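Hi support team,

I'm opening this ticket because the web form for multi-chain structure prediction keeps timing out on my end. I have pasted the exact lines I submitted so you can reproduce it. The total is 722 residues across two entries, so I didn't expect it to be a heavy job. Is there a limit I'm missing, or should I split the entries? Thanks in advance, R.K.
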Amino acid sequence: MRTPSARDLRAHAVLTFAHALVIGALNRRMHDRDSRHVHDALADLVTALRRAATLGVDMPLQLQCADDRICHDGESLDGPSLQARSLLRDLRQRGIAMLSFGPRLDVEEANRLYDLLLLDDNVAAFARSTRDAALAAFGVRNVRVSLRAAADPSDRRCGVDGTDRALHQYQDLADCLQQTHARALRDQELAVHAAANVVERAVTGMDEPSLLLSLAAQDDVDRFTVGHSVRVALLALQVARAVGATREQSVQVGSAALLHDIGKSKVPQEVLFKQGRLTADEWHWMQQHPRLGAQILLEQHEHVAAGTICAAFCHHMRPDGKGYPESLVSVAPGGTSRLVRVCDVFEALTSIRPYKRALTPIEAYAVMFRNERDFDVQWLRVFARTIGLFPNGTRVRLRSGAAAVVREQTGCPEKPIVQLLTGPDDSALPPGQPDRFRIGDLCEGKPMAIHAVDTHDRCITVPDFDPKDLALPTHACLSPALVHDLTATPAKG
Amino acid sequence: MQAARGARNRTPGKPPWRKHYIAGPRGADSRRMQHPRHVDATASYPTALAQHQLDLRTEVKRSSALPSSVFAAFDPMVESLLAETAESMLSRLQEPPPETTTPPPEGADKRLETVAMAELMALPARIAAGGPIDLHLDAGLAGEYLAVLTDACGCGHEPTAKHATTLLHRDFGILGKDAGSGIADLTPLLDKVLAGDSGAAVELGTLVQRIAAQVASAQQAAADAEEDA
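Hello R.K., no limit was hit. The queue was backed up. Here is the completed structure from your submission:
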């Protein structure tokens, strides 16, 4: 176990607070201001703020609000920004450039702050001349608001490089799904077509899907199922692309994955986020969410693709139809549902839940292969070959002691391309030398090998895979048509 | 002022409704119980209780001609024991929430997966097994959709069931009034299956699914008719 430094702890505390701020806003949008969900989320916000103060984060804690992300000390907080599209939109509408939180903020005051930040009626309160009076009138004394100057550079989106595009795509998906869940909760008509459009835009603009996935890894605090569903959709899209899905199929599988948990909007949150064992009644509720999801989608007036409805119904079913919900007639899940199930379980295992820690991807694979009868093992294999044992964005420690981050998959799940962050034993990288290597390549006469996976709270040692055993068929992740060509020709010859 | 003092006794930032955060005898809640004003807020629970009893007796003495022993309902030893027990219970209630101090509940233990190094070691081989894979996203969709619609028809509430019936008709040509029409085909198919015809087994499965869908659709139609009537 790696002991985090005081600096790491402070950075994590700021991230947690920013996440809580975003989650608080999401809760305010979905529930009544005086509901327990809101109260609970705001209690988390206040706790996170006090924890940050205790750990020595400078107070007031200042968060800068650009158009597309939340920053602290000029550094982008990508994780919280991923689900912050609506909040940032509201802040932009009010011309807010920075929020400064004093450690004495309490739950009720935080709730009043959200009244000011989120309700349409209060947009005008943030005129330069009335801002202070509005904060005072709402009893918000521990938060200061700085407004943007007329030509503030934060009025622009922060660049248009690949990472920014990925961030915007992720925000689109999350924002769309937040609205869809909120509508489902209120029994309103869903904008299913809009969801498909967002997925289509993601498919079209996704130059490098793994970039989105590595971003998704940062979205680790998720009290809704929104972040989870977005990540499942991204995983499914990546695998769909690897198996040679057409654009239309990709949009369908992306939409199916995005909406697979829509039934959870009807499950009480006390059940959804309960720590520990569920009672029989609560478990019954949970088991109904796939059926509820399918029913919500069936009730829509606009056309919803069959695959989307089926994935909502079948994503907790094994290939033999066992699992839940208990169906009136026997159901054999189809291809999309099987893929969504694999992505769903992988994402759940690698995420933090109230009742469990997050597994590293390599551990998640081990657990899934241990229970491989629960999945379509073919889809599981394709998934692992595509995403890799060390997905892009994973921080690893090499045998040399150097820290590195996984940048690219190569077709061999255990041999990704990594970019060095430090030299051996954390020394500085020598300038001008190449910093990208494929695992297994020789470096100073020795093959580069991953020694451990580094997460923010754990360091998992991985085995020394024998290079002889590592060779996969080079076409393992190619499209079915190409695979067929490659395999069929020699046999016929 | 009282609120501020009470807040000091609570764990910062915790919602007030949880029983773990109810303030103890030194907190705001105990003051609501109208303890005499001069009770020292820093006193222990037995001291505070003794002080309260003394105040009560003084008050009784002042306002009644009867001997105070008439009002002493409790044995002092029992009272002391009660005070100690109460204090111990309250101090437990004031401990941090169980999720941070106690082991996870029984159900949660199962969720903390542990993975052996051998399992990790075996992963590349397990992933590579089977060689190239040809998979289709649309595989099995029709049968799956039929089953999901049948379920919605039979288990869904009114608008869902109705819509599922419409979709069964539109996408599969299944109507409730046809219920039973496929039953005659069951016997020959069953004979073939018993004779070991694997193709017939698939056909039988499909037929059974269609019959189930017809029955669900017929039930829904009957329910509609009943409602209309």
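A quick check on our side: Residues 452 and 462 of chain A are 5 Å apart (CA to CA). Let us know if the file doesn't open in your viewer.
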